[in-house]
Amino acid sequence: MTTLQYHSKLKGTLAITDSYHTETALRKEKGLYKFIWVRKGSITVEVDHQEMLLAKDDVISLTNLQHLEFKSIDGEYFTLLFNGNFYCIYGNDHEVSCSGFLFNGSSHLIRFTLNEEEHRQLTEVVQAMEKEFNTADSLQEEMLRITLKRFIILCTRVARQRLDITAEKESSFEIVRKYYNLVDEHFKTKKQVQDYADLLHKSPKTLSNVFSTCKLPSPLRIIHERVEAEAKRLLLYSNKSAKEIADLLGFEDQASFSRFFKNMTGQSAVQFRNQPGANA
Predict the structure, then answer these.
(1) Lowest mean pLDDT: which of 3-12, 143-152, 240-249?
(2) DSSP of 124-156, one letter per residue?
(3) pLDDT per residue over 154-170, tens digit each?
(4) Are 234 and 105 in contact (CB under 8 A)?
(5) Nearest-CA neighbor of 87 among 39, 131, 34?
(6) 60, 176, 219, 263: which could join 193 in a potential S-S bond, CB 3.0 to 4.6 Å?
(7) Where is the HTH araC/xylS-type domain (predicted)?
(8) Which domains does the chain have, with CATH numbers?
């Protein structure tokens, strides 16, 4: 496979590769959503400065906001990448139900391990996608989009099964997804559960019960973790000062941001930015 790419007239990008760690140009491209699937052995990656070991048939999904680094490659892996111009997960959420679930801007990564049948199904989709990359005709773009959608749906289905999202929990799951999406959209200006309860036409107590049913952190914790994740990204991958970050994230002043960050991480913003390995 090595690397196969498709670029549409509307600046859409779809790519698959088994050597993403060496694809300098592709790794520099902004706005790419990613799936990483370990096919053999293991790899060690760092996502937003948090290291994780991925073993055979582990799959993770990353948004365009999350920073990925490869620490070691002790096996074989597959990466699927696409941007919003090729397939908008928000505009097509009714088709794949992945926004706010597989893809959200928080520090909670969706990670699951494929069983033998799921491995077979996903392999078939990848093989179909490879074939379409090599079929240059007027239908190529739409066929690639269809196979991408199949890949996303299969991953969504597996992840939902791992979280035991049954038919009885479906309505709760939809509330959770909508909540994550709203937090992604408004976390800089809305930091109270009541704000999101109003947008969802639910009471804060109802939201707490829903998140508890789905065995997730509390609604307030979700907001705090989203703000924390953004603060960490800005500290690690931008030159903005703590005051500028405080303003950008909607804090009244630098002091309130500093208190929040210390409470969440146990470190000051300066300590976090200057820790060994930061900005490596």
Answers:
(1) 3-12
(2) HHHHHHHHHHT--STTHHHHHHHHHHHHHHHHH
(3) 998 998 888 777 676 77
(4) no
(5) 34
(6) 219
(7) 177-275
(8) 3-162 (2.60.120), 169-273 (1.10.10.60)
